[in-house]
Amino acid sequence: MSDNLWQNMILTGEFGRHPVHFFSNTGSTNDLALALSNTGATDSTLVVADSQSAGRGRLEGRTWLSPPGTGLYFSLILRPHLEPADFPKLTLAAGLALCKGLESHTSCRPGLKWPNDLFLHGKKCGGILTETQAMTGTGQPAVVIGIGLNVNTPADAFAGDLRDKATSLLAESTIHHDRGPLLAGILAELHLVVARLEQGDFSGILSEWRKRNIHAGRQVSWVNTQGRIITGISLGPDEEGLLHIRDGRDQIHTIISGDISLAQE
């Protein structure tokens, strides 16, 4: 299936108003974007790869399966008008944008797992990695939002442990999707949600995020910094984007980072 938007991006090095650095294969689009941001890359610069050999997850040691020709693997450089303390909110905002982009361009209705995972029918379909790096010298600090999305990955590509944990738009809908229009839709939603953040509307973003929260009110487990497993009811993220869990003794734990799973998993 021909995708004119995708091919035009490769030929011109542009995607709408975005300057694009396209790679058939690279280690990690986020690593490249961070390096570009540190040498003055403009706001809205995109780094796109057809495949990655070292795609990274949010937690140390986590990788992202990035086979060629099937997925969206890209990083967007932004210089948002936000206080650095508000940068972590961009991860939740990007998750909402990713959901809305897919809802507008596919029949899929994804859910979100705090803080950065996209799920379809109980399996992970996409992930977000937000990283920051200040410019050398003076200037607006840059934020890199990296997104990996399994689009046309066949179900049999998920081998071993991944078979029960990962999926793609194709595997869940049996429909092949052109990546160019999907990328355009997701980028449009990303710019809208970042503008909302800049205008101080994180509460509205959070309200929409919570409607897609796959763990809302469910029993979840979290491993704290001491290695102890905390089990309790997920209360969802607060107005700062931090997750709260109420354990069996009615104690509320505030989660800044870590891996959350359903208690029975």
What does it look like?
The model has no long low-confidence stretch (mean pLDDT 90). The chain is built from 6 helices and 13 strands. It folds into 2 domains: 4-210, Bira Bifunctional Protein, Domain 2 (BirA Bifunctional Protein, domain 2, 2-Layer Sandwich); 219-262, SH3 type barrels, CATH 2.30.30.100. α3 packs across α5 (179-198). The N and C termini lie far apart (38 Å). The protein is α+β, with helices and mostly antiparallel strands. A hairpin with an 8-residue loop joins β7 and β8. It has helices at residues 4-12, 29-37, 89-105, 169-173, 179-198, 202-210, and strands at residues 14-15, 18-23, 46-49, 71-78, 111-113, 117-120, 123-133, 142-150, 219-223, 229-237, 243-247, 252-255, 260-262.
SSE blueprint:
Elements (H helix, E strand, L loop, with lengths): L3 H9 L1 E2 L2 E6 L5 H9 L8 E4 L21 E8 L10 H17 L5 E3 L3 E4 L2 E11 L8 E9 L18 H5 L5 H20 L3 H9 L8 E5 L5 E9 L5 E5 L4 E4 L4 E3 L3
Parallel strand pairs: 2-3
Antiparallel strand pairs: 1-2, 3-4, 4-8, 5-6, 6-7, 7-8, 9-10, 9-13, 10-11, 11-12
